[in-house]
Amino acid sequence: MKASKVICIAIFLFWQTIQPLNAQDYGNPDNAAPLKPSKEQEACNGIFASYTLEQRERELPFVKNVSAQGWAFKSSAVVLNAGATELEAWQLFIGFQYDELLVSVDGAVVIDGDSFPIRVGKNGTHLAGFPQANLKTAIDTANDMSQMSAKIHIKGTQFGGQKNAKPMPKTFKIVNDGFKCPAPKMTKRGSTITVCCVKDPKFKTKALKTKFFPRRKGDLTFTYDVLQAYKGSYLAQVTIENHHPLGRLDRWNLTWEWMRNEFIYNMRGAFTHEKDPSECLYGPQGRYYQDMDFSQVLNCQKKPIISDMPPTLKDDDKVGKLPYCCRNGSILPAIMSANESKSIFQLNVYKLPPDMNRTAINPPQNWKISGLVNPNFKCGQPIRVDSSEFPDPSGIDMVTAAVASWQVTCNMTRPKPNQAKCCVSYSAYYAQSVIPCNTCACGCEDTDSCNPNAKAMLLPPEALLVPFVNRSAKAAAWAKMRKLPIPHPRPCGDNCGVSVNWHITGNTKTGWSARITLFNWGNLAYQDWFAAVQIKKAFVGYQNVYSFNGTKLPNLNNTIFMKGLPGLNYLVAEVNGTRPSYPRVPGKQQSVISFSKTHTPKINIEGGDGFPTKFIFNGEECALPTRFPGSGAHHSRAADFLPVLLVTLLTTLLITDRWFH
């Protein structure tokens, strides 16, 4: 009996001795054989990428039309650094061949920043690595695949293909500078494609003088600077800078997406549109910060909407006292005011595990910003740049660097059809009718009682002074008098908050002139407004704009830049008529612009050379008519001149009445 006890004790002690030895095994703690690289990976001396279709199934609703039937699919992509140099900020392009849309992407972010679901079938999509943006080499990591590669999981829906069509990309490549990618190869099974991208020997690599990526140029940029970092939180400063001479934002709204359950504890210089502590209380934030009073937390949304503070809070000790803040979201071009071309705010951000250390900082993704009647900006994802430097607040000759900095670059895009925010109408002294703004130029929500596809009806000149709802009777009476067709149902309105009338007032052998009238049909006034016009053939003959402040910008597509003179820089809002039965009266600004024919003697004003090829208000490109005023049937110049004179006199009286009252 004693012998058996001794043997048991000896076995137990021996087992305890070898246990630590097993824990010291540096090979594979799970005793699993390491994954063997594929033949394609072994043959690649560069960046290897693969795309695998994992699942495809028919989804509801079931329809007979094969091309209209939706198919849910799951796929994965792998990006592997099989070369000898680190790949920083990897980017992958996937060019689908049918009408696919992405529902979710895990392991990367969509560079264009659109919200899911995203249509990618026609133009493809660019993906950037997140949270693993850089891929190290096997040399630097001792073949650690977790640092060398990134795996992306994709879910989506496919339309437009035949019953057995697979949502396989037609184009698949790495798009980082300095790499060449051949056409992807399909494996024997037909569900995986691979590509090996190698360095282009002809590409001249620029010597980087910075530790991280150099800052990029764009029409609008954001800088996300971390000023203070703690274990579970950090203080960040966001700087918005307008670099485009025609870019602008009014009452801007900024939104982004937190990717790792962060939340905003408080802000200075800006505010969020919603404060709802329940999103934190019943989420992972509440489970981790069990002793926190979330009623004091500013915002717990995954996608907060952020706006600038009003000027009244500029010197507030709690939410103000920041340079370039608190202007009601107004960001002007630098040619108008360098000090007002940027905006700044700060936010205190709390983090969650596993990011509970001072260096684990992940900036928000999918940045979007919009204004009132302002251009649309398409933004990329944040890229790490060298830390921003700030002058020491004490005034001594010293700079203080941020803990870390990221940059987001945005560029202006042209508005899509029927999605503009302003429009232009054309008229001329030689034509009786006004060419109005296009039907649904700024969109149409309610089309039950109107035709969104009908061409806008010609108008008498005085109809430009009343809102669209009061033009129907005038348009019908004018069409009847001019023996023009009256469509049924009538065309929908333009639905634009701002409209512009371009009227040719004169045309002689030596020069010509036009009158520009700005109309504000909205409830908000536009302070420090500006307008810009491009007229390709007439630019060289520009002389003056008399009631505005005009400047030639020859380096910007021959643009004429205009803004209000001192004291006339407000485009006031629409107001009620002087009597209850009178139509509402828009805010107006008006000026004559003149041109010489010295360098353009053959310019054809009536043929369209005297009308804008592009008109911009507060940075937004306005919708232009697709036709020009014509003389039509024979009529006297005096008959034409009378309604034009009437409109001019009425507009002058209205502006004068508004100015003195």
TrEMBL record:
Signal peptide: 1-23
Main location (coarse class): membrane
Swiss-Prot/TrEMBL keywords: Cell membrane, Glycoprotein, GPI-anchor, Lipoprotein, Membrane, Signal
Subcellular location: Cell membrane
Annotated ranges, domain COBRA C-terminal: 421-629
Membrane topology: Lipid-anchor; GPI-anchor
One GO term (biological process): cellulose microfibril organization
GO CC annotations, alphabetized: plasma membrane; side of membrane
Family, per entry: Belongs to the COBRA family.
Protein's name in the database: Glycosyl-phosphatidyl inositol-anchored, plant
